[in-house]
Write a structure and sequence with these properties.
With 260 residues, the protein is α+β, with helices and mostly antiparallel strands. It has five helices and ten strands. It has helices spanning 22-33, 71-76, 134-141, 192-204, 210-218, and strands at 2-5, 42-43, 52-59, 83-87, 103-111, 125-126, 146-149, 164-175, 178-185, 234-240. Helix 3 packs across helix 4 (192-204) and helix 3 runs parallel beside helix 5 (210-218).
Length: 260
Amino acid sequence: MLLQYEGTAYHGWQRQRCGSTIQATLEAAMCKLQPGFQEVVTASGRTDTGVHAVGQVAHVDVTSPIPDHRWPKALNGCLPPDIRVLAARTVSSHWHACFSARWRRYRYLLYDNPVPNLFLRATSWHRYSTTLNERRMAAALQPLLGYHDLRAFQRAGSSRLHARTTVQAVDVHRWGDVVAVDVQCSGFLYGMMRLLVGQLVAVGEGRLPVCAFEQRWRLGKREEVQEAAPPQGLCFMGVGYEPVLFSAPAPWPWGQLGVG
């Protein structure tokens, strides 16, 4: 199923002992439609507390006779308004939302007008002291393209055996007072996007030279990557499969700011 959610009220995707999560909320909705339901809803990527999604994909095993096209309406009738199922379809039992994915894409929104914007508060990071230099930020991102060890952008606590991934596309766009940072990878490390954007903002504000940004990740200097961007500006934009499962979801927000 293809999902959208506003992550403000949730402690991320993964079920936890305390606090509401997207996974637990979806599974509770499934229980209402399929008595005795005990399966796990598996996502293409686990989002952290407060992070949003416009194109999340998840799979679950069902025995209900409800046909594909009726699942979105049925689930949305049982879900809170900040979680929506956009589409659903049957796939092979060998298909996996996470392991079958070819790429994932995140977008981070920054707002750099000195005057706060109430309607961007929940979906962007307000940087009010300095106008961001988006060209310098874009230049810093370009060397990341390709297969690299990005341990400098990995939070402690990751279960991954290594920190290597392929960065497939990067872009930085400005639309008025909003700067969008787009990154597409074969897979993201734990906390990667927020740590990367934290460093990128330092570049955009002139506090960190572009060459120093590159040196930190090339040499794996995790101890020098201190500031992580807050979660509310981050959105999981989409995930790619072959063959394509779903058409592109509605943009979040300002769809013209796509990955280049």
